[in-house]
Structures are given as structure tokens and as C-alpha cells.
Amino acid sequence: MKTRPDLLDIDQLVSLGDLTGGGVYQIVDDFASCLMDRVAGLRAISGERNMGEMRMAVHQLKGSALSCGFLSVASMLEPDGVGDALDFSGLEACAWESIGAWKRFLSVIRS
Amino acid sequence: MMDKQLQGRILIVEDDVSTRRILSLFCSQQGFQPLECSCSADALRLIEEPVLAVILDLGLPDGDGVELLRKVLEEKPWVPCFILTARDSARVAVECIKAGARDYFTKPVDLAALFSAICDAVKRLNSAAPNTVDSPLASSKDSGWLSKAGRESHVSFLNATASDQPVLMTGEAGTGKVRFAGMIHEAGVNAQGPLRILRIGDPGIGCVEAALFGSAGGGGENPVRGELQRSAGGTLVIHGLEHLSQPLQSKLAEVLNSGQFQQPGSKMTFPVSCRIICTASADLAAEAAVGRFSKKLWFSLKPMHIPLPSLRRRIEDLPVFCEQFITSFCVAAKRPRLSISAPAMEVLLQYDWPGNLDELRHCIEAACRNTEGSIIGTADCPSYLWDPAKRGEGSSALVVGSARIEEMERASLVAALALCAGNRRLVAKRLGVSLRTVYNMLKRHHLAGKRQARDLE
Known about the structure:
Chain A is elongated. In chain A, α2 (about 25-50) packs antiparallel against α3 and α2 packs antiparallel against α5 (about 90-110). Helix content of chain A is about 70%, strand content about 0%. By secondary structure, chain A is mainly α. Chain B is of the alpha/beta class. Chain B is about 50% helix and about 15% strand. Chain B contains 21 helices and 18 strands. The interface of A and B includes residues 31 and 74 of A.
């Protein structure tokens, strides 16, 4: 299966890897490993209707996604728009796809 | 190998763990030492430590990032702050820059650009504002000061930070001796310990001996710790050393030589485990030469003696000080950055600043308050600086002037006495005055000894 070109910012990941001697990949991999848990956490907070907490959690996840090159996930997270229901199904699907894309990228980098 | 100017700590305030880890990793790889935290409260605690720069995320769980930025710059106005945000908002960017941020980056952060900006800012700080604790000047041989006197004091500063020897700083009132002592502490080996200041002559401290050494208490019970113990692991600044009584001068000399001390009323010996920095406004070499200051203490402190120059001796550095004071004022007052007009700067450069940096700071703050626009003009400065009539008629100016002539006369006399080993006739010859004039001068400056009557006979 081919990776959708918009899931990851490959240029950013390669550049980060070059700048850090590959050290950044462990951080991104850690993010990928906990991404589904964080999305589930968002869903739980959303159920509590605590908008302040929700906004902060979305902000943090978006920041992580941007820093780790998970472009599509980041684009689905809008802290100012959390009043409107977040598309959790779409977000989960996008997160799964992005994690898969990341794993493939990592295997290529490490091979 | 990393540029020595850039070694130091960078505070990373970021609640998002992945971004924080990436910044920290890159920071370490660039040779900096990352200090990480995820909230405003921790940031305000960590900013008290020496840091070269701050990377600050705007969205923090316990407060507004812009408000935190203002607080950080109130604490350390010279530290360059770089803002990170997930939102590309021009309004927020303008707000941050107005609040004093050096630059603004949106996520995903271009690490190369961010650290290039940090390195530039640190280098600029190093050359533009050398007298700041967190500036990397502590490891720089290039002080950035324009004046010879400023460069010399910078070299002394570097030497002082490289050792833990006792330091003596002398200089006129207002030359920043205590501040300089704080800088040596923060850049020195005892930076992790406390910095305590004992102001001799301050009525609040009561018995100086007890304040310095503590006391054993009645029957050895309820002992009171003195500043020497309270400063353990850090630095004790003894401010106004010339006001210390002669017996305490001798005792302090013993302490410096032996590295230990006893509390009054106790036989127990305690080790000195802090660095001692003494300051004095008087010329202690001259005072020691005429017996008004302990020679033993003078010779204990002389190896690391840092004479701080008066502002008029380093007038070339005045624009740098102005810049620092304006920045501090604007940050504290939450005002947009001000600049100073060329004519106003000329006025400041023409004045001879008897009150040194303290006087300059007060004048700059007054000028900033008076300025309605963005440029400080001549008329915004206190009128005695630019109105010769007020400068001339002001009694304070005359008093200051005559006081300085007195000081100069006393200094010449003391120096001549030291050079002529106290021989009044040689002193008279050296100064080109009569023997009687020498005695009149000695009397006026309270330097007359018992030999006067015998010599005049």
C-alpha cells in the first residue's frame, strides 16, 4: 500500500533526522506509539464537556503532531474550533493511517 | 568545538512533550544545556537560574504565555526570549514582540532557524550588554565594552569567576559593586549556593560581629548562625568594608587566612564554606598606608582586587548602559521599546555623572517616564543635565563638585604619603606646597599624626 503524500511531512522528518543525527526518530516513534491513546483521551475529555481542558488537550496534541511531522493529524485539530464536535472517527482513521505511514518511513530509514 | 561564547543554559518552556523533547535534544547537540519545564509556575522558578535564552510556548496549561513572557522579562530583561506557537497569528506575533520577545516561530519549528536566531541573540547580547549576569560574557574574552577601563574590569571579572579566592571590589558610590558581586556569584563556582549581602553600617544589622560570625548563645544554647554560616556553599558579600571596625578587620583577615572562624562566646571552630566578596568605596590601599585600615586584611584581599571605574572614566560605555536601562524600564512598565535621540545622548555624554550608574539609571527612568513618543529627547531628560543655569545654580551640583575636589586632594595627599613613607617634608616637596600647608591638609582630612608638632618644631 502506498503512503498518502499528505499524511507525513517527509521533508521535515528527513531534515530533523539530519539535524539530530537520527536522534529525533525515537521521539517521533514514541509519539506514534501513544497517538491512539491520546486521541482516545481527547474523546473522553470531549464527553465531559470541559471546554478549557479540551482546548488545552487539542492544543498539545496538535503541537506534538506538527513537531513530529504528522501533518494530516495536525490539520484535523483546531483548538479554537473544539466547540464544534471534533470528527473523532475521521481523526482515528487518519491517526491509524499516519502511524502506518510512519512505521513504513522508519523501516526505510533504518534499512 | 562549540564557540565558548555560546555555552550555557537554555530554558525550554513547552507543555507538549514531543516538541519539548525535540527542542531539548537539539539544544544539547548544539552544545547548550537544556532546562525543561511544562508550565508557567516552573518557568518562573527556573528563570531565577542563569540562562542564556528562553524558548517559550504560548499555550501553557496554567497561564497566558504572553503574561509569562512579561514576567520573565521583568525578572531578566536582557535574556532573549523566543516564542513558539501552533497558530500562525499576526496579532499574537505583534503582541509578543511588543512584550519584548526577540522572535516568533510557528510549529513545526525550523530548528536550524530557531537556533541560529538564538546564537545571534546571544552573541549580540555578549557584545552589547556585557554587564548582565546571564550573558555569556562569563566565558568570553571579548567584553564588548568600548572603554579601556570597562575592558579591564571585564578581564578582572573573568579572573574572579574562574577561582574561588576572596574578592575585593572598590569604586565610587553607584558604580555597581554589589551588582558586580552578584554577577561573579552567578557566573562562578558557587552559583548553585545562596548569595547573601551583609551591609556594614546598616543600622538594621545590629552587632556586626554577631551578624557576621553568629553567636554561641547563652551557655552554648540557642546558637545564632551568622552570615558566614548562612552563606555556606554560596557567596557572602560584605558591603562597605571600610566601615568595619579595626578589631573586626583583623578578625576577618584571620578568617581569610585560616579558612575558619570562631563564634563570639564559643571555642568551637567552624570552617568557612562560602566565597567572600568585599566591597568598599574608600581607597583601601591608601587607608592601609596611613593605618586607617588593617594592612593584614588589605594584603589578604589585594590579590583579587577589582577597582570598578567611575562612569566618567568609562564614558564611552554610556550608550550601552542607557540601552540596558531603557530596556529594563520599558519591560517593567510594559511599554513599547524607546530609543534615545542623538542630541539627548550628546547631553548625557557631556555630563560627568558623579552619582555614576545609579544616577544614570534614575535619569534614564525619569526620561522614559517623560517621553510621550518613542524617542527620548533632550527635554525629556532631567533639566540639570541640559540646562547649564540649573546645573550651575544647583547647590547639589556645587556640593558634589567641591566634594570631589576634596576627595581628589585627599587622594593626592594619601598617595604622596605612601610614596614618601610618611615623610612630611618630602610630601610637601612632591606636592609643591609648604610644610605648613601639608599639615593643614592632614588636619583637614583627619590624617594628622603625633609627629606634627615635632616636625614643625
